[in-house]
Amino acid sequence: MIRPKNPAVFAQLALCFAAVLSASAAEIKPPAETHFFTGAQSCASSSCHGGGTGRNEFLVYQKKDRHVFAAGILGKGTSLKIAEALGLGEPTKAAQCTVCHSPMEAVAATRLAPEMKQTPDRGVSCEACHGAAGEWLRFHTRKDATYQQILATGLRDLIDVGGRANACVACHLNLDEKIRQAGHPELFFELDGQAALEPPHYVDARPSIGPRSWITGQATALREMSWKLSTARDERLAVRWKALVWLLQMTEAGAKELPSGEDFSAMQGAADLLARKVSREVWTKNQITGQLRKYASSHKEFSDAKADRTALRRRAEVLVPAMDRLWAALKKEGGVVTPGFEKSLNAVSMLSHEGDDFAPAEFAKALGELEAQIDSALKP
């Protein structure tokens, strides 16, 4: 099961400061539409998430999580140039920027606890992901409450892998084209790998959580791309969309659930159903290994001299992270020999990041060499 480092707490990162519910569990009421935010300082008590080993979720977030620095980026070179090009003024105050880099900036003062009005949260803070804590802050620690009752008071369900993907995908994938053209880096969403890099402030010990997070995140990304393309055709995004369809249709679940053709609305619905389905499926070691082999064998497709180079580059961009996460899952399972395989995987990764200089033939050769090493990398 997924659990905080303090087993008595029900969510990965929860807030422990102001009392808002004193009724019994049977008297729990749904959250009000205007439930208020208490601020990241609500997590910081040493008796809650700012303590030592087993209660240090807030400290991990504060010292290591990249979300903490999201607002600081807005005051630096590239952000200033983008804002200037678009006439946005100061990027630290522009809604087009803060919506993802510092979302608490847009919260009405009437929804802020007194402590938060005095010291507003900057960056992507606890409640930006876990929801406004005013209704569940103290209640979520009660031993007589079930997790579903706690969710009913407003805590966002991030234990559910699909819910986790939905909470992250908007800011990690959707980007206004004008902002991208002004210099913002292109956004890619891969839930498992990006969560590992944060690093996570929680422990998730559920079986095959890595592959589950990876495929759920990719299906969610396909849903979002499909939605965007259904509203306006974008050839640049369409190439990325086709690459993601290709990647997911090589999985057993994707082959069954995803339609062919370019009906973006139909794909949007199918991708959403796929994300819901795979978020609950447990992968066996044989399934992980089989999927890794299948992806590595795709080097034949990159050898096709007649294939569109841009399309192949986009496929490589999603293929390499997929193999990386599958390999990470196998290492977690045990029974693998890593040095030679990881050296080859790194070589394939480097070639996939060549951008417009992407060389399909070189990538195909490196991917073929990687496939040849799979058997020797797996212990009998």
Textual characterization of the structure:
- This protein is mainly α and 380 residues long.
- Among the domains are: 1-159, no CATH class; 293-380.
- Helices cover 52% and strands 1% of the residues.
- It has helices spanning 57-64, 77-86, 95-101, 114-118, 126-130, 147-152, 161-173, 177-181, 191-197, 209-231, 235-249, 252-257, 264-278, 285-296, 299-302, 309-333, 339-352, 360-377; strands spanning 2-3, 203-204.
- Strands 1-2 form a two-stranded antiparallel sheet.
- The chain is globular and about 65 Å long.
- The relative contact order is 0.10.
- The model is unreliable at 1-33 (pLDDT under 50).
What percentage of residues falls in helices of 4 or more residues? 40-55%
H/E element string?
EHHHHHHHHHEHHHHHHHHH
Mean pLDDT: 88
Distance between the termini: 29 Å
Name the overall outline: globular
The major sheet is characterized as: 2 strands, antiparallel
Largest beta sheet: strand ordering: 1-2
Poorly predicted parts: 1-33
| SSE class | mainly alpha
Task: Give me some keywords for this one.
380 residues, two-stranded antiparallel sheet, 18 helices, globular, disordered N terminus
Layout: helices, strands, pairs:
Elements: E1 2-3, H1 57-64, H2 77-86, H3 95-101, H4 114-118, H5 126-130, H6 147-152, H7 161-173, H8 177-181, H9 191-197, E2 203-204, H10 209-231, H11 235-249, H12 252-257, H13 264-278, H14 285-296, H15 299-302, H16 309-333, H17 339-352, H18 360-377
Antiparallel strand pairs: 1-2
Helix pairs in contact: 7-10, 10-11, 10-13, 10-16, 11-16, 14-16, 16-17, 17-18
